[in-house]
Amino acid sequence: LLVNASEALGRPIPETLFGIFFEEINHAGAGGLWAELVSNRGFEAGGPNIPSNIDPWSIIGDEDSSLTVSTDRSSCFELNKVALRMEVLCDTTGTNKCPAGGVGIYNPGFWGMNIVKGKKYKVVLYVRSSGAIDLFVSLTSSNGLETLATCEILASASQVSNWTKMEVLLEANATNPNSRLQLTTTRKGVIWFDQVSAMPVDTYKGHRFRSELAEMLADLKPKFIRFPGGSFVVGDWLRNAFRWKATIGPWEERPGHFGDVWMYWTDDGLGYFEFLQLTEDLGALPVWVFNIGISRNDQVSTSNVKPFVQEALDSIEFARGGPNSTWGSMRAAMGHTEPFDLRHIALGNEDCWKTNYRGNYLKFHNAIKKAYPDIKIITNCDRFSQKLDHPADLYDYHVYPLSAKDMFSMAHWFDLTSRDGPKAFISEYAVTGKDAGKGTFLAALAEAAFLIGIEQNSDVVSMASYAPLFVNDNDRWWNADAIVFNSSQLYGTPSYWVQHFFRESSSATLLHSTLQKNTSTSLIASAIMWENSDDSKSYLRIKIVNFGNDTVNLKISVDGLEPNSTIQLSGSTKTILTSGNLMDENSFNEPNKVKPKQSPLENAGKDMEVILLPYSVTSFDLLKG
Ligand code: AHR
After folding, report:
1. Domain 20-34+215-400+422-428+460-496, CATH homologous superfamily name and number
2. From CA 182, how far away is CA 395, in angstroms rounded?
3. Around Cβ 474, how many Cβ atoms within 10 Å?
4. Is 422 left (phi over 0), alpha (psi -120 to 50) or beta?
């Protein structure tokens, strides 16, 4: 492999080449990145009708003799009127005695709440009652027998005759990843509950993201976050699509919605504001995907799409407007006076082929460009195979081959594409099907090759992100995914680890590199040069994927270095990702089975003989000195 380290012969890689795509799929946010422990906190999962679906809330006690539970529309929150009504029939005296521990309701969270000894949890609930209350708010084991933390709330009838917000701080005295939140009493009477929340006090940057999951994202050093979908944005029906205005402001007032593509309810605690906050917390730029009046099954006609266009304009004002603007002031009221750095809007997702797409797109495009000429607009029509019939700054392109071999050959997909016109945003790529399993080494290896191809073609590909990002192991809608978790455990799949090889690529210089003609066709390589912000030193990274079954002995020669510059032995490293079996996967039991391994590069220099293991990704980080 010949690498020319001359910057003059190289090419700057776009600043935002590699990022992440967050979609509310597989309970990625609700029951995932969003640290809320209570599932269906407003009892609203059935929508505004009553009786509502209170699942997964359940009853403690005997429904015939000790309590009755129903829903009504008496909440103090206008957009989510459903409240839970609990009538307690038993008490501590008389003939109908409550069982020890009382009666009430419990919420098991999203397949169990992870409660950790010594950690604090803030529980907030809204309560109203016909009389005085004596309520125990507790975190317990899944059968209620072991109490991890509890607090008694006593209030007189006059204190709770109207809806009252109660807050308690619970400190856990034991650890249990399968806990539940209980609200119990032994006092006869009627109590209404609404908007019951339990959150760990420690969250990522204090912004209510589950820390370990957010840290895995931070480790990828993403340069952008595309959100909140995908198909989640589009919806099966427009009435169920993501509507940003219903996801901002106080969490208690958000109506929540049923995501009808991935079939689950979200309370929308993780709303538009929180997504913008996440991008800022991770040092990434937001890529805001907007529904342009088209779902999978219905469409707004172009002549009626104006209100939808206004919604998009308002969303931009919310992100970027001054604190005195109508929507910017809402953002400021939520605690963020400064604007967010919103520069990209994607119009729709996988709906270019719909009858109204072009007409609706143009309405959005023209209005947004008029108000915000600098915003980059992303179409999802395919510029790869034909010229676009509408203006766009980027075009969205999804790559989901059904085999690893196909993904490997797609590394050269963009080599021959036209160099004119809008550049590609490969916002979703991953091997799917049998080769992908639930996240195999084989799929990751092919994706590494594909990403090398993207790097090589970064003059026509500006952005790329893997999909999907997260899966809660209890709700696998889509295989494979980058990060797998349950209430307390998590691991990166090999596809997650492959992305680590590309963390330094955005903004780096792509160096000119050529594999000798007689090298195996199973190899693909690229070389970059970048300055490391940790030690302010300059590095060359040569990445090579060997997609074949043979060990390859390869000579790497670096020329074009400045006259008094060389490659330092000390400080140069080699990182390898390989595995005993192509179908190897990580798991909760073996989270590090397939993970890159770094070691000093003992023969680092301008000329090196290296060994590439069969089926491997290797990166050589050469310290320039
Ligand atoms: O990544 C999962 C889904 O794949 C996305 O929601 C959609 O855009 C694509 O079809």
Report:
1. Glycosidases (3.20.20.80)
2. 49
3. 14
4. beta
Q: Which of 472, 413, 416, 479 is nearest to 443 (CA)?
A: 479
Instruction: Please give the CATH architecture assigned to the domain spanning 58-200.
Output: Sandwich (2.60)
Q: How far is the centre of ligand 1, averaged over its atoms, from the C-alpha of 230 (Å)?
A: 5
Per-residue model confidence as pLDDT tens digits over 558-600 = 999 999 899 999 999 999 999 999 999 999 999 999 999 999 9
Q: How far apart are CA 201 and CA 456, in angstroms?
A: 44
With beta carbons less than 8 A apart as the criterion, state whether 153 and 145 touch.
Answer: no
Radius of gyration, alpha carbons of the chain:
27
Gap between the Cα atoms of 103 and 87, Å rounded: 10
pTM given for the model: 0.97
Answer yes or no: is the C-beta of 259 below 6 A from any ligand 1 atom.
no
349 lines ligand 1 (CB under 6 A): yes
- Closest by CA to 101, choosing from 133, 69, 146, 160, is 146
Assembly ipTM: 0.98
From atom 7 of ligand 1, which residue's Cα is the shortest distance away?
230
Residue type, 134: D
Give 166-214 pLDDT, tens digit per residue: 999 999 999 999 999 999 999 999 999 999 999 999 999 999 999 999 9
- Residue whose CB lies within 8 A of the most ligand 1 atoms, among 347, 398, 476, 481, for a mutation test: 398
For the chain, which residues make up each domain, given as ranges? Answer: 2-13+508-624, 20-34+215-400+422-428+460-496, 58-200
2-13+508-624 belongs to which CATH class?
mainly beta
| Closest ligand 1 atom to 428 CA | 1
262 lines ligand 1 (CB under 6 A): no
Is the CB–ligand 1 distance for residue 231 below 6 Å?
Answer: yes
CA of 474 to the centre of ligand 1 (A): 19
Sign of dihedral through CA atoms 327, 328, 333, 336? positive
552 forms beta bridges with: 612
